[in-house]
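Training component of the fellowship. As part of building independent skills, the fellow (R.M.) carried out the full modelling exercise for a liganded target. The chosen ligand was guanosine-5'-diphosphate. The inputs are recorded below so that the supervisory panel can assess the work.
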Amino acid sequence: MFENLTDRMGQALRNLRGLGKISESNIAEALAEVRTALLSADVHFRVAREFCDRVKEQCLGQSVLASVSPGQMAIKIIHDELERLLGENSTQFSNVRPLKLMLVGLHGSGKTTSAAKLARLLKNRGNYKPALIACDVYRPAAIDQLEVLSGTVGAKFYCERDSKDVPAIAERGLKFATENFSDLIIFDTAGRLQIDENLIEEIKRLRERVQPDEILLVADSALGQEAVNVAKHFHDAVNLTGIILTKLDGDARGGAALSMKAITGVPIKFMGTGEKVEDFDVFHADRMAQRILGMGDVVSLVEKAQETIDQKEAERIAEKMKKADFDLEDFLSQLQQMKKMGPIGNIMKMMPGMSGIQVGEKEEKKMRQTEAIIQSMTKQERARPEILNGSRRARIAKGSGTKVSDVNALLKQFSQMRQMMKMLKSGKMKALMRGLGGKLPGLGGFGGKFPF
Ligand code: GDP
Ligand code: MG
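Fellow's submitted model of the complex:
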């Protein structure tokens, strides 16, 4: 899988690794090689160009951590961008039960095989009771194939050999599955050699009738950019929720995997890596990026250095909180650390019991506003908020584009926080701070993400 790309990336990055200084010219040189590697992997040219632009911008703008070399930092940046390209955090998957999945795609892409593989995977790891419904009624052999596979993976099976009314079959299949207490119902549909109106119409009628939670496109990675075009068409027509990329075992280039998310906006959720039912897995962007770069040691080294910085900062603030001399400067630093972890909505989604809570733009906006208000204060004001009289408050409101009432509200909230700090025991506080720091240990709950 991706052997060619891994080789070429390795060559491109070898020189980068030991680099003691990043300059406009040497990063451009290294990135030209990265770009060639991507293009020869059949990555869409626009994707390759944007990738290199983003990496360059970050490399030049990045303040390098003391304990790693600039070259190592650059490799970490490339790794993270690669992960983003492959679809970082894209393994969000509906976790309702019963879960209804519809597999669509071209002829021979691997739909029927993937239906069985998916049933097996979710049965083993998610404790689902799967049922497979044969909706490819045009070839009797297709029904037989699914029946045999159902037996292999231990799934219930439903078909109607004398009917061609696909939506009606699907509906009765759904009834059959629920009566048999199945909580994972997979509809295996018919493909075509090419996308045509009839196929799309049939999929739409089927979708209307069974209301699937996910519509997954099964795409053959060997088709490279063509697979991406197919995905784009399907997505425009029926709104896909994800992609199963098959036959990665025979794909030395990786162009489809790398361009898919960027071009279509649809994440790859699963991958097929062989003909056997166990040759299948959740698609993990981070593991894939790691595999392509093959520089796990450098990546974890930089991560460690970054963590240490965050950890040190969290500890420093915890110490100040303990003494209750936490000031607005520290508050700002906290906000900025939280921001580094990504949109607050994503963080909330990871917390058990919080996934249902909507943290939307309003809260994000509020955080940005708070940041702006504190940034409009002088150092002295941040350290001693009690000196903030009416005219100072008016100046801050003006400077941060907010109202005096917003400034007042923030100061009130801050003073309550301080009050609380005085009351709380230091031990408790420290644990809390660690939670708010660089990481959120213990908060990585399932909530819609794969538990594996
Ligand atoms: P469908 O027409 O979309 O239902 O495709 P099938 O499920 O019948 O698969 C077509 C062929 O591709 C079969 O010979 C499968 O064994 C093969 N196939 C499917 N997925 C993979 C995969 O991930 N790797 C490999 N090597 N072969 C696969
Ligand atoms: Mg089939």
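The panel noted the following from the submitted structure. Residues 249 and 273 are 5 Å apart (CA to CA). Strands lie at 99-104, 130-135, 156-158, 184-189, 214-220, 242-246, 268-272, 280-282.
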